[in-house]
Amino acid sequence: MSAVPTSPLQATYHRLRGRFGDLSLLGLTLAAALACLVLVGAIVWKIVALAGPSFDRFGLGFVTARVWDPVKHVFGALPFIYGTAVSSLVALVIATPVAIAIGLYLSELAPRGVRGIVGSLVELLAAIPSVVLGLWGILVLGPFLAHHVEPWLHSTVGFIPLFGDPQQTGQGLFTAAVILTIMIVPIVASISRELFLGVPSDLEEGALALGATRWEMVRGVILPATRSGIAAAVILGLGRAVGEAIAVTQVIGGGTRIGWSLFPPADTLASKIASSYQGAGSGIETSSLLNLAAILLVLGLIANLIAQVIVRRFDPLRGAR
Amino acid sequence: MTESFTIAPVIDVTQVRPDSHAGEREVVFDIHDLTVSYGRVTAISDVNLQIHRNIITAIIGPSGCGKSTFIRCLNRMNDLVPGTRIEGQILYQGSDLYASGVDPVEVRRRIGMVFQKANPFPKSIYDNVAWGPRVLGMRKDLDERVEKALRSAALWDEVKDRLKKNALSLSGGQQQRLCIARAIAVEPEVLLLDEPASALDPIATSAIEDLMHHLKREYTLVIVTHNMQQAARVADLTAFFSLEVDENRRSGVLVEYDATSKIFTNPSDKRTEDYVTGRFG
Amino acid sequence: MSRYRRRRLVNRAMEVLATVAALVAVGVLAVVVISVARRGAGAVSWGFFTKPQALFGQPGGGIANALVGTALLVLLATAMALPVGVLSAIYLTEFARRSVAVPIQVVIDVLAGLPTIVIGIFVYALLVVGHTQSGYAGAFALAVIMLPLIARATQEVLLLVPDTLREASLALGVRRWRTVIGVILPSSVGGILTGTVLAVARAAGETAPLLFTSSIFANTVQTDVTKALPNIPVLIFTYSEQPDPALHQQAWAAALVLMAFVLLASLAAKALLARSRRKLAR
Predict the structure, then answer these.
(1) C4 in a domain, yes or no?
(2) Range(s) of the domain holding residue C268
(3) Which residue of A107, A109, A205, A208 to mutate against B (max B Cβ within 10 Å)?
């Protein structure tokens, strides 16, 4: 297509065709972008709409009700909120320092060649499909925890109510928390590593030139400078943990117990939905499961939006993504 | 920063206040046959030099002749660059700086450094100065320590009412003086300054230079500068480095080292003369 | 102990802790991979790949139908997600004003963070209720997961194209749409490909979206997309919950195949990334 028209008619034709082309591309891409918006809106709307009957029946008390009885048609979310909260928080508490330590190792400590390899291995850990991790959890981790770790914990720190009587199968909140930890660590570690590498080296040199040790430099300069980014990463990891259904379903055993000990079986919001949906007997049970999904959706949205706000407000560079 | 572009040197020799006993003072750094290479590139070769106490020693020379490399050897900051190889010997007050048992962390506390681009921490002014002493365990009388350091850096009066404000709110010259205060706060014996005023305007530069005259009473100062007039203004002794291209190797070498007045008015080496008269560099 | 010695000790202790943490991560990876490899390798054979699932209770059988099913589902999902993802990214980087682009980006990031089980339920309610499970429904659910990944990857690589390139093309009198299609997109193909490969690797392993949309048990190879298709993740999931050790071994073997695929895809994506980086640096 030449840019120089050879006749007035051809010029008009080219101009119109060009404009048509521009408009078409704009229209096409705009439609695609709007489709994304519509998709998210549809998901939220559909879930909320289907949860409607359950919400109408039980109201906000659904969130604090403890009973889940498909036979009597009485449903409450509290056991699952408890399960989600405990498993995710335990996982977060263990995963965060480990992930930050790995991030520091990859950015500050590891020799050149090792850095790339270990970094790739950590990313590979993140790529393991959750169903595979769950399979490993049921058949390997669960029995191991049940026969070795839980009894040991119970005998040494059993006075802490968290560590009650050990289970036979290893299916329970504790195993789920460990699996979630394995899932969160690579996410937070990768982001942390990027953040630490992004701290300008002249700040690091300034601290070291004062006679500080490497750790003092990390604690005094690197960690404070990356505080908000790490917070966002942790919240992102939390969102992941809260939303994980498959691996958790496989190892958590199922139940509606609320109690101190971490070892007995339980359910999270996500795992309850995954395990019970197919077998839901009544409309109200289905709707209540969707009510759980709505709660899960809200939690996931909150975590995601908070993380986004932190990143966009405190790191405009990254917000351009 | 641009050099003066003239044929004859525009250096007012009457401004030079040389310490005529400079070369007789106690030796702080005794450097023998120092050769530094990064990978296959040799940055400086066979440097022999002695730095004396409580005077200002300037390292001058064209870009790329290894001045920064040299000065970073003195507080082992080159350790942080992977692939650095250091041959030769640097004795600090008689002890080998690179002996196997020596901890670079301790070296850096005693030999402080101020960088070309001011790099204050993103903390308050107070915390910038106090961080070093806190970490090193000098926690007593922290307020006094901070004040003393800021006074020594001629910054106290300007910041005493806003110690809690973020250090990045200061001007470039103030930030650099803050970095000097930060370095002084940990009570080093030596201060290394790597082109400390190259990013500053003339007024701020002049403030830093005046500061250096005061500081040399308590500390030994080594300054790298590519501004000859600055060297003439502040330094007692001046070392001229230049690039030597021989066989396949380009590396920095020490050409001449003498009292500042001699370097600038009557240099012994032709290369020095060419440089200070502006014929090259 | 002197202050100085204590500081050195603390520094050393922190170094050790960080190294241990990294070793633990690598160790866990090794344990999982070795577990899968050890337990699954025994069942992997030529027959394993070519035979469909056996009836429950019968020995033997393989994953042929699940493999075919996963391949079809992922292919279909990519066909759905790729155009929408790339086009959205083009809109965001080439056409949208900042005030419009940022909210859309926020929404896409929200989409990326949605729990996959919620997506599965949504698609179930949308496409399966009133009809039956189908490959379309399963693929659509996977596409919803792939979409934000592809969109983000495309955006990142489009942003890498320097504005001077766009200006040069427009200054020649070339129209916008031609510039995008003829100049900008071609130079971004590497990044888009990388993002797609990674999204494919992710989608191949997702179970929750398929649980309610395409999760039948079948013992023949199915290719009818209007019906539910057996697939690897749901196979692993279902078998893992059975008490039969023979099924467990099949699950391990399928997991081995899945992990090998994910590993290969990640390596391929890395290689693609390195190659496109070299090209851009020209």
Answers:
(1) no
(2) 46-280
(3) A208
- What gap in Å lies between CA B53 and CA B29, rounded to an integer? 9
Is A321 touching B (CB cutoff 8 A)?
Answer: no
Q: Which chain A residue is nearest to residue B74, measuring alpha carbons?
A: A209
Domain ranges of chain B: 23-276
Nearest CB to B115; choose among A112, A206, A212: A206
Interface of C with B (CB under 8 A): 3-4, 7-8, 11
Nearest to A304 among C104, C109, C255 (CB): C109
Cβ distance A186 to A128 under 8 Å? no
- Three-class secondary structure of residue A226 per DSSP: coil
Are β-strands B41-52 and B220-224 bridged in parallel, bridged antiparallel, or unpaired?
A: unpaired
Q: How many domains does chain C contain in total? A: 1
Mind listing the pLDDT tens digit for each residue in A69-96? 888 888 888 999 999 999 999 999 999 9
Give the neighbours of chain A: at least 3 Cβ pairs within 8 Å: B, C
Q: Which pair of tokens denotes residue B255?
A: 């050409």
pTM attached to this predicted model? 0.86
Return the residue of C nearest to A279 by Cα: C212
- Residue C10 covered by a domain: no
Ramachandran region, residue A24 (left: φ > 0; alpha: ψ -120 to 50; beta: rest): alpha
pLDDT for C17: 96
Assembly ipTM? 0.90
Chains contacting C with at least 3 CB pairs below 8 Å?
A, B
How many angstroms away from the CA of C3 is the closest CA of chain B?
A: 7
The answer, for A225 touching chain B at a CB cutoff of 8 Å, is yes
What beta strand segments (E) does chain A contain? none
B54 touches B215 (CB < 8 A): no
CATH of B23-276, one of 3.50.50.60, 2.170.120.40, 3.40.50.300, 3.90.79.10: 3.40.50.300
Domain with residue C89: its CATH number is 1.10.3720.10
pLDDT digits (tens, 9 = 90+) for C225-275: 888 889 999 999 999 988 888 889 889 999 999 999 999 998 899 888 888
Residue C8 belongs to some domain of the structure: no
Question: A8-58 vs C98-113: helix axis angle to the nearest 10?
Answer: 50
Measured over the CA atoms of residue B139, residue B141, residue B147 and residue B149, the dihedral's sign is: negative
Give whole-number Cα distances, A302 to A65, A268, C190, C209, in Å: 22, 18, 34, 22
The Cα of C2 is separated from the nearest Cα of chain A by a number of Å equal to 15
Q: How far apart are CA A1 and CA C20, in angstroms?
A: 63
A207 touching B, CB under 8 A?
A: yes
Per-residue DSSP letters for B125-149? HHHHHHHHHHHHT--TTHHHHHHHH
User: Is residue C166 included in any domain, yes or no?
Assistant: yes
Residue with tokens 């030079």: B16
Candidate from A39, A108, A131 with C-beta closest to C205: A131
Q: Is A226 exposed, middle or buried (0-12, 13-18, 19+ CB in 10 A)?
A: buried
